[in-house]
């Protein structure tokens, strides 16, 4: 979904730079050179957010800011300079942020904010406080930046909400609460979830008992003292969210095959092994298929290594769709594996055979050179609870498929 942004700016060069930045991070951008033009655009379109110049020819003292706010458009204010009067006017309005147009960093910061806002829509934040007024205030700050919010009245309630909503990424908690206070909640959260999964920010009005250190030692990632400044709140929150996202990206990269974007051998082994443990306890049989492209070396030899890569990528995309309910992995080269957790054996075999026939017919569509190729598949099902043994058995069947003419499934 493309999001629309309104840029209200009377200096054409600055407006063009802002438009370029917005487009770079995925927005469709409209420029208004005056408040009158902005009003007209607002009457015609719905905007995800706006970047508003504080001084405009027909709005010399920030009149464009209440205009976008009144239209419910999350607003970032850009100002030439931020003297005391301007700051007071700007801070009166529930804006997302204000940026001074001083230097290059200001535009880098704008880009970061514009890229952050759509991502915030996917982030669920739990606000824990026994005061309804404080919960309401913090949730308002969060929704202004497009975060999703949930509320809990104390530590016990927070643990219940967390169990019911596994996608909660950040917990903002007060300390002084009945039943279970903030640092006790932190300890409990860290017993259940790691810092890589969920960030905790502690908030308290009292700092007499070195509460900040107590919060941090109990497992919180950050601490804010009430009453806090909105800017500091947003900065700390986005730093913690950035950290969670960076960890997620690193983990994804570590588990993904660089060329095909399929799970790599490492990830496949981790996932399949944990399922095998459960299968062993339940005494159920397990199934695995090894899939290998026939005569792949000759594809590289005849069409070049890049064409070979294209074939691998095309096949992987197709495999990910075909076996989306199963665990798929690239083991290396032109060898892939599919682990069938809790699936009827006949159903798995039928799916594999259908896939083999599909590739035989449609493989030319995977590459520019319309390279036709086939697959050999080895399948094993049985009460085998060591992954190495399961792979060995499926590999033996794969060898038989190759030896008996290729382009077939052996089980
Ligand atoms: N393009 C490309 N080639 C790769 C990659 N990884 C391995 N290969 C090549 O894959 C080929 C595998 O060849 P072989 O193991 O002889 O197998 P094959 O030609 O498919 O023959 P059969 O399996 O017996 O049908 C080798 O030429 C490798 O260099 C890769 O990431 N990209």
TrEMBL record:
Write down which residues bear the modification named 4-aspartylphosphate.
53, 174
Note the superkingdom of the native organism: Bacteria
InterPro entries from the UniProt entry: CheY-like_superfamily (IPR011006), Diguanylate_Cyclase (IPR050469), GGDEF_dom (IPR000160), Nucleotide_cyclase (IPR029787), Rev_trsase/Diguanyl_cyclase (IPR043128), Sig_transdc_resp-reg_receiver (IPR001789)
GGDEF domain ranges (all copies): 284-411
Residues in Response regulatory domain copies: 4-116, 124-241
Task: Write out the catalysed reaction.
Answer: 2 GTP = 3',3'-c-di-GMP + 2 diphosphate
Which residues span the membrane? none
Going by the UniProt record, its keywords in alphabetical order are: Phosphoprotein
Q: Which Gene3D superfamilies does this one have?
A: 3.30.70.270, 3.40.50.2300
- Name the top EC class: transferase
Keyword Lyase part of the UniProt annotation: no
- Report the EC code(s) recorded for this entry: 2.7.7.65
The keyword Phosphoprotein is assigned to this record = yes
PANTHER family xrefs: DIGUANYLATE CYCLASE DGCM-RELATED, REGULATORY COMPONENTS OF SENSORY TRANSDUCTION SYSTEM
Protein name, as recorded: diguanylate cyclase
């Amino acid at each position: 979904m493309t999001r629309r942004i309104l840029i209200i700016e009377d200096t054409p060069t600055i407006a063009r730079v802002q438009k370029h930045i917005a487009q770079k991070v995925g927005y469709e951008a409209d420029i208004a050179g005056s408040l009158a033009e902005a009003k007209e655009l607002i009457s015609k379109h719905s905007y995800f957010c706006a970047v508003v110049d504080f001084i405009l020819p027909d709005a010399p003292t920030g009149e464009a800011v209440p205009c976008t706010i009144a239209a419910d458009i999350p607003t970032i204010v850009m100002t030439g300079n931020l003297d005391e009067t301007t700051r007071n006017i700007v801070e009166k309005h529930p804006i997302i942020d204000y940026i001074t147009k001083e230097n290059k960093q200001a535009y880098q910061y704008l880009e970061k904010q514009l890229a952050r806002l759509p991502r915030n829509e996917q982030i669920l934040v739990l606000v824990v406080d026994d005061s309804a007024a404080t919960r309401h205030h913090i949730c308002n700050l969060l929704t202004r930046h497009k975060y999703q919010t949930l509320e809990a009245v104390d530590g016990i309630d927070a643990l219940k909400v967390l169990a019911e909503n596994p996608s909660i990424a950040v917990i903002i908690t007060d300390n002084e609460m009945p039943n279970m206070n903030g640092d006790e909640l932190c300890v409990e959260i860290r017993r259940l979830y790691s810092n890589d999964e969920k960030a905790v920010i502690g908030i308290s009005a009292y700092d007499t008992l070195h509460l900040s250190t107590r919060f941090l030692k109990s497992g919180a990632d950050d601490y804010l003292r009430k009453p806090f400044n909105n800017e500091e709140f947003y900065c700390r929150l986005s730093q913690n969210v950035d950290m969670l996202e960076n960890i997620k990206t690193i983990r994804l990269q570590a588990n993904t095959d660089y060329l095909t974007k399929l799970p790599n051998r490492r990830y496949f082994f981790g996932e399949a092994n944990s399922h095998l443990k459960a299968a062993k306890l339940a005494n159920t049989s397990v199934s695995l298929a090894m899939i290998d492209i026939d005569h792949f070396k000759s594809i590289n030899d005849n069409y070049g290594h890049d064409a070979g890569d294209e074939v691998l990528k095309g096949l992987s995309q197709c495999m990910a769709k075909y076996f989306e309910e199963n665990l798929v992995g690239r083991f290396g080269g032109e060898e892939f594996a599919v682990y069938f957790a809790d699936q009827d054996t006949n159903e798995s075999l039928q799916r594999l055979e259908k896939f083999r026939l599909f590739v035989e017919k449609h493989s030319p569509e995977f590459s520019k050179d319309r390279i036709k190729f086939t697959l050999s598949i080895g399948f094993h099902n049985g009460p085998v609870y060591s992954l190495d043994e399961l792979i060995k058995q499926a590999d033996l069947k794969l060898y038989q498929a190759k030896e008996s003419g290729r382009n077939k499934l052996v089980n």
